[in-house]
Amino acid sequence: MHFRLDSETAEFSAEVQAHLQEVLTPEFEEQTYRSGVSHDESFAKGLVDKGYFAPAWPVELGGQNRGLWAEQVVKEQMMRFDAPVYLSETTRMVAKIIQTAGTPAMRERIVADAMRGDITIALGFTEPECGSDVAAATTRAVREGEDWIINGSKMFTTNGHIADYVFLLARTSPDKPKHKGLTMFLVPRDSPGFEAQAVWTLSGERTNVTFYSDVRIGDQWRIGEIDGGWQVLRLSLEYEHASGWGPHIARLLHHAEQWAQATPPDGGAVPMSRPDVRRRIARVAMETEVATLLQRRCVWLSEQGRQPVAEGPMSKVFSTEALERASQDIVELVGPDGARAYLDPTSPERGRFEQLLRFALGTTIYAGTSEVQRSIIAQHGLGLPR
Predict the structure, then answer these.
(1) What CATH number labels 122-227?
(2) Which of 154, 181, 219, 287 has CB atoms 3.0–4.6 Å from 176's, for a disulfide?
(3) What is the pLDDT of residue 62?
(4) What is the SS3 assignment for the chain?
(5) What does the pLDDT look like over 176-185, one tens digit per residue?
(6) In the chain, where the domains are located
């Protein structure tokens, strides 16, 4: 087991970093934040042109055959720079699922365009009354000849107002147990009866509540078997659960170090000269290192052909909770100025501490709450009963 990057991967990582430093200007950063939308078409197309969109994919499918470590360092750099890639990530994830579980016609219709950045796909899992229990979905899809009629609503369909498609979980057999009566669909956003309404999160991100009112789609938009949606969904949940948020802690650490090494306006000693400042920053550095190692362990396992079933949730739980701890600690360390607004030029580090604090609070919910992740670790990692 190793976690150090070989020279080729390290060089690739530096190349990605240089690209992001060039294109993610302060003006672009402000535009993205004020819109609340973590997607920009020209930025995404730029990743495709540079070969950074899906480096581990086969060349014939739009990738570079670079392997999992190249894919990992791209993810790390995108998080480190807080790049607007969430819709690109969900698009790539669903394209991978369609490549595995979709019909030949759907693969031909969707995958190539998705990997060129020509189409985008949002996720439609969570419902207003179900929270993290996605299997309790009540959005209905009723068969009518060769079509399906969909009625219901979904919560937190991020980018659902701009994506071309929504990867939708719907209940097709209400009389079956909740995990066995679900089916997955790809719903075109321009379908009559579809509506997206904005919901703003604490971090300033725009997500959506989406409504399906007699939305009619053909059976060709079904992914996997009827009532086999849970098996298809598990592919995406495994992908999401194996996420790591360590690069965001590294971003916080970078700004904390810059603040601590700068001379105060009153001309006194730099904050780094104080033992308490060094202690707190050292703690953030340690948690950055642990979060990085936990995520890279997942990559190593995948490289060995092993599914990181419990290891992925371990990475997700630790990194998000560490980010929450660290952001609160640094804001407390900086003092009242640490709570001044993001992008305010007079605030320390242009308000990154305040923004990261707000952002961190949601990460323990994204892709399954910490409670869900701990249940997976207990059952699948430790063999404990439900």
Answers:
(1) 2.40.110.10
(2) 181
(3) 82
(4) CCCCCCHHHHHHHHHHHHHHHHHCCHHHHHHHHHHCCCECHHHHHHHHHHCCCCCCCCHHHCCCCCCHHHHHHHHHHHHHCCCCEHHHHHHHHHHHHHHHHCCHHHHHHHHHHHHCCCCCEEEECCCCCCCCCHHHCCCEEEEECCEEEEEEEECCCCCCCCCCEEEEEEECCCCCCCCCCEEEEEEECCCCCEEEEEEECCCCCEEEEEEEEEEEEEHHHEECCCCCHHHHHHHHHHHHHCCCCHHHHHHHHHHHHHHHHCCCCCCCCCHHHCHHHHHHHHHHHHHHHHHHHHHHHHHHHHHCCCCCCCHHHHHHHHHHHHHHHHHHHHHHHHCHHHHCCCCCCCCHHHHHHHHHHHHHHHHCCCCCCHHHHHHHHHHHHCCCCC
(5) 998 999 999 9
(6) 7-84, 122-227, 242-382
- Domains 122-227 and 242-382 are alike in CATH topology: no
Counting residues of the chain whose pLDDT is more than 70, the rounded percentage is 98
| Model confidence pLDDT, tens digit, residues 131-161 | 778 889 999 999 999 999 999 999 999 999 9
CATH number corresponding to 242-382: 1.20.140.10
